[in-house]
Amino acid sequence: MPADTDTPAVLPETSANSLEPAIVPHLHLLAHSAGADVDQNRAGLGLLLLWLGDDVLSAVNADLRAHEITETKLSVLMLFSLREMGWWQGGALTPSAIADYLGVTRSTVTGQLDWLERRGLLQRQLRDEDRRSLELYLTEAGSALLQQALPGFWRACQRLTAALDDSECAVLRPLLAKLWTRLKTD
Fold this sequence. Notes:
mainly alpha; elongated; two-stranded antiparallel sheet; MarR family winged helix-turn-helix transcriptional regulator; single chain; disordered N terminus
């Protein structure tokens, strides 16, 4: 069928923004390539979530660039800070536990931990209870970086919802929590 007569199953509601011109070709591709078992409305919405995730990460990383760290590495440091403050309830901060929590591979976490250690933000120490194993700890430099970066990080997080009013935020929060919970249990 010619592209001009083929209407995708999903056209998200848009205002005067650039979403519709960006997504319509993809929705056409979805309509032509998805199997009969694919709900095109949900797949289109999933595509928007993927794009949003990419854009969110890019925006936050741009704000963190001045601190020479990415959101993912900052999140790892935050976990160590939470443990120090007694607010981490996830057990030992092993590479596997961090990977599960962040939704990345263990090898990715190992690379991030090595990077953070090489920059003096984390330090390996022998465990008191088992001298054969090592544990990572936040260094003074790591704590200082968090003190410098976190205020801007939280402002960047706030800006991500700037287009929404309070009632929209109240509706969005449980929906995002539901999606997050589902992704963590799959």
